[in-house]
Design a protein that fits this description.
The chain has no helices and nine strands. The chain is mostly beta strands.
């Protein structure tokens, strides 16, 4: 299991503090076939009852993968071997609103 936690620090009033942030990492990127998506919703937008999804869309906006994610953080392995080479976007949504997106290149 691969676990990565990247806290973000901010300086407010001369004191350092942690700021919660949504995380979305895709590796390897570019990929020829499979890639792993690591995600973590911030504590501010990670409400338990919200609907969280991970989507992969092409440049035209067609959804090629839609997965519901049931946890505030985790990882998903994607097999993209049957899709054409090109640019895609991995999009993390909460209640149908885009929270974060990352460009993915498929060789």
């Amino acid at each position: 299991n691969l676990s990565i936690d990247f806290p973000i620090c901010s300086e407010e009033g001369g004191k350092m503090g942690l700021v919660s942030s949504t995380l979305l990492l895709v590796a390897p990127n570019p990929t020829a076939s499979t890639t792993t998506v690591l995600y973590s919703f911030s504590s501010l937008d990670g409400q338990l009852k919200s609907i969280k999804t991970l989507e992969v869309v092409d440049l035209v906006g067609r959804k090629i993968v839609t997965l519901r994610v049931d946890f505030a953080k985790g990882s998903v392995d994607l097999d993209l071997s049957r899709y054409a080479s090109g640019q895609y976007f991995v999009i993390l949504k909460q209640d149908d609103a885009v929270v974060k997106s990352v460009k993915l290149i498929k060789n």
